[in-house]
Amino acid sequence: ALTPSGYPENLRKIAMINGSGINARYQDINGVDLLPGRRIVNTTFNVAAGTDITLSINFTPPAGTEINVSHVYLDFAWWVPAFDVTSNARSIAHPYSDGVDAASGGLFDIGGLTENLGTTGTVGNFLAALETDFFNFIPSVSAMALEVTNNEINWFHTPTNLVTTRAVNNITPFDAWYMPDANEPHVTLTQGNVDFAWNEIVLAVLNTPDTTISEGISIANNPMKNTLTLLNKEISAENLHVSIYDTTGKKVFEYSEKSPSNTIKIPLQLTAGIYITHITTNTFSLQKKIIIE
Question: By CB neighbour count within 10 A (0-12 exposed, 13-18 middle, 19+ buried), where does 151 fall?
């Protein structure tokens, strides 16, 4: 059964995406930004003796507008015109967002998929007429699971000052994330995202520095065995909360106390090793490595 948030709990959730984190546009084959409604195919070629095809394809349109996104015309020149075939498709964009095709996101590599299909015949003519090698495959706002209101997703939303809670637009369920500035092909590995993953998986906990916003509470015994002893020097401290994480980032212990005393002794039943403890109250925060003997 899913949790209320829809995500696993008591662990560190991270995201690595290939879509732009600054809502950058991706470009066509000539280096021009691709925008909503842009025509990406406009061509006519012969498909069989006496038969030509005309193709016109557009990206989905800007917000609140309707355009023809697909036009196909088969011209049987050696038959009577009554046998010609025409097919059209139209698209309407919601008023709250431009069409998703040109939004930032991890990109589908058309050239990579079609490189073995050849450069001649109908397929070759179609691919040669394409004015882009990519299209938006995984939108950035989807990859980051940004919360939306009333299912009205703005595919061109720019993530700003993300926080790890669930609310509207700039809220994500992830605790840490990597978003490049430029849109990249889907599942592309770069030095930036590899370094991020390595740090999160291998280095994050062991390299966590001891940081203190206030000296209100200190750890009396470190290393320790079965008891974590805290010395409370903050008279007004309330709502003490202690979380302990192992070296994989998994939360292995949690303790809360509304009105902590001057000395707090917390029983522990953890195996020997290195852990990270996060201690907070209404007035301060402490993050520190601890060693269990």
Answer: exposed
Q: What is the pLDDT of residues 29-87, one digit of tens each?
A: 999 999 999 999 999 998 887 788 999 999 999 999 999 999 999 888 766 666 788 99
3-state SS, residue 261: coil
Closest Cα to residue 69, out of 60, 77, 78?
Answer: 60
> Helix H segments across 89-233?
110-114, 121-129, 140-143, 191-198
166-to-103, 163, 172, 219 alpha-carbon distances in Å: 23, 9, 6, 33
> For the chain, what is the largest distance between any 2 Cα atoms, rounded to a whole number of angstroms?
97
pTM, entire model: 0.64
Instruction: Return the amino acid letter for 209.
Output: P
Residue 119, Ramachandran bin (φ over 0: left; ψ between -120 and 50: alpha; else beta)? alpha
